[in-house]
User: Fold this.
Amino acid sequence: MDTHQAKKDVTVGILALQGAFAEHQVALQKLSCQKKVVIVLVRVADDLARCDALIIPGGESTTIALLARLAGLLEPLRLFLKKKPVWGTCAGAILLAQAVENTKKGGQELLGGMSVTVARNGWGSQVESFEAPLLVDGLRDPDQSFTGVFIRAPVVLSLSPSPEDPPLEIIARLPAGLLPRSQTLVSPDEDDTDPRDPRTIVAIRQGRHMLTTFHPELTKDSRFHEYFVRACVLPSLSP
Ligand code: GLN
Assistant:
């Protein structure tokens, strides 16, 4: 490999088995950062081996896990997570959780990597999709809200880091009072305006990993992609 090239480029993989991987590709192509971002659509272990970081898109987490198993990618993905940055959006966030509730019958295979418990399809069946303006301090132009697109999104139920895990950093929450009402999550007499409620958490970083329960790739705003590369990927590259 040309070492000069290797230093100038950063290779970001997108797991391309199912779901919104093409949209992530478009968002990454728009980025301008201090290194050239080379994009790899990951379908087999050899693709993953070329990557400095990985994005797991939204889609259907059970299908992605099944296809990853069939492609022989589950164990390579788990090993990758131990060393390199991974960002999961929506279904991808479910796969990064250490535990998930409301799984399909027969349970659900996870990759783990983040000390978070989520509920799959946690906003209930009537309110499957919604948009919410998010104010996110860590993004470029933090005064401009980021449109969070939530589609059958998971809900964060709890954070449970053990002392040896990197700390969890909450990057974004739903504005207080915007918790969608669903039979399972918010009953009419429950206070849904408590800003500390874990269900309001929609983006988290833990060490080199990140999850967003919404779909930044379905907007034209690539500030979350920029954030992932700047805050998680570039610092993890060996000098
Ligand atoms: N509910 C889906 C799942 O369980 C996730 C939805 C999405 O990624 N938009 O995987």
In short: The chain has a mean pLDDT of 90.
